[in-house]
Amino acid sequence: MRLPSIQCLTTDGLARSHAEQARALCEAGAKMIQLRMKQARTPEIENVVRDCLPVCREADCLLIVNDDIEAALEAGADGVHLGKKDLPWVSARKLAGSGFLIGGTVNCLEDAKLAVSCGVLDYVGVGPYRFTRTKECLADLLRVEDWQAILLELGDLPSYAIGGIGLEDLASVSALRPNGVAVCSSVVCDEPNKIIENYQSLAIAWEQTKGMNLCEI
Predict the structure, then answer these.
(1) pLDDT, position 62
(2) DSSP secondary structure code for residue 38 in this structure
(3) Assuming Cys at both sites, which of 21, 109, 126, 138 could form a disulfide with 10, CB separation 3.0 to 4.6 Å?
């Protein structure tokens, strides 16, 4: 499966619910959404997934659940994103079987080596690129040389740059050569009533940065 180049995350603490954020993202043209409901229990997450799925299906948008593989499988989501403190990636694949997207988080070269060697991931989120207020216990920010080593190690495993990425970062991020970007604050938190405009501006800018390299920024 060819994954979209932009993954959008919903977040807690906004006037718009997770379902409302997802609907606005679908309307904007998003093709991959990750429900990141850190304050919710499994039954609530399942309900939101079921609420969002018809909208996502109509928009041809993949729906991923952060952390909770039980909710993702029970409600029929397209996949799950698992951090290093969640269910181990190999165990998740055994539980989910094939045809279910599993993403993982990579914060260092050792993580990248594990992501490749486990052989069960469909993509990884690599970072953080910069500080983000939507993430607690943030890992150390990656340097350019870290990005280069990690992405080289990942090889053909699809990668999304993560961590506080906004419009002003896209040229520099693209030059590092990840397969895509995962965004949250710059789309759903900054002027949340303008999610559609925020996403579309970012999508256009991301397409314009493709093909750049470090000496062009």
Answers:
(1) 98
(2) T
(3) 21
